[in-house]
Amino acid sequence: MSVHHAISEHSRRQNQQIEAFLQLDRKREQSIEEALDLCRRGEPFSVAEINRVTAEINERAKKGIIPTRRMVTEQMIRDFAAAPGKP
To answer: InterPro entries given for it (predicted)?
Structure first.
C-alpha cells in the first residue's frame, strides 16, 4: 500500500467517525429536548434513549478522535427544566 493510499484511507475512516458522532450527537440533543419538553409539561419522561445514544458515542470515542458525552439523570433534566431563563 502506498503512503498516499494509507493516508487517504486513514482520513476517510476519521471522517466516518466524525460524521457518525455528529449524527449521534444530534439524536442525543433531540432526545434531551424531548425529555425537557415532557418534564416542563409535568408528564412522565425517561432518560433511557439519551443514555443509550450517549453510551454509543462514548464507545466510539474509545476508538478514535471524537469526544465523550456525560450520562444524563432524570434529576439533571428536572433541574435544567426548572432553571430560570430556560425556554
So the answer is: DUF2533
Distance CA 84, CA 80 (A): 9
Q: Enumerate residues 6+ apart whose C-beta is below 8 A from 77.
A: 32, 35, 36, 39, 45, 47
Q: Is residue 87 part of a domain?
A: no
In a domain, 20, yes or no: yes
Q: Describe the crossing of helices 3-40 and 48-61 by its angle, rounded to 10 degrees.
A: 160
Full domain range(s) for residue 66: 3-82
18-67 pLDDT tens trace: 999 999 999 999 999 999 999 999 999 999 999 999 999 999 999 888 99
| Residue 27 within a domain | yes
How many domains are contained in the chain?
A: 1
DSSP string, 12-44: HHHHHHHHHHHHHHHHHHHHHHHHHHHHHTT--
